[in-house]
Amino acid sequence: MPTDTPQPGTIVRNHWSIECMHWGLDHNLQQDNIKRKSSRAARNLDTIQRIVYSVFSIWKGLRKKQSDKNKGMAELIRHISTSFTRLMRFLSQK
Fold it and tell me: Residue 27: which residues within 8 A CB-CB, separation 6 or more?
């Protein structure tokens, strides 16, 4: 295959970006360990988890404090979820 074709690289990058998100969901939110009783519950929970993961990913990228950027996603989620006040501060940040 010629080396100047950008399509295989694009396909591989797109695939691994999806795999990276799935790994992040499983690693940080323990997605594979949660038992779901119905397919509707599974879809709803998956949607909520993807939203949470996306919000935290964006928030982490926008932070200026290096200590926040160095924290893992699971550590950030645990830190914020332990206090309603922390959650409100997190949601009100720009």
Answer: 73, 74
Structure tokens at 41: 């519950």
Task: List pLDDT tens digits, range 12-48.
Answer: 777 777 777 777 777 776 777 777 778 888 788 888 8
CA-to-CA dists, residue 2 to 8, 10, 49, 71, angstroms: 10, 15, 40, 41
Alpha-carbon span 49 to 30, nearest angstrom:
10
Closest CA to 59 of 84, 30, 89, 82: 89
Cα distances (angstroms) measured from residue 64 to each of 25, 31, 57: 24, 29, 14
pLDDT digits (tens, 9 = 90+) for 48-85: 888 888 887 777 777 677 776 677 777 777 777 777 88
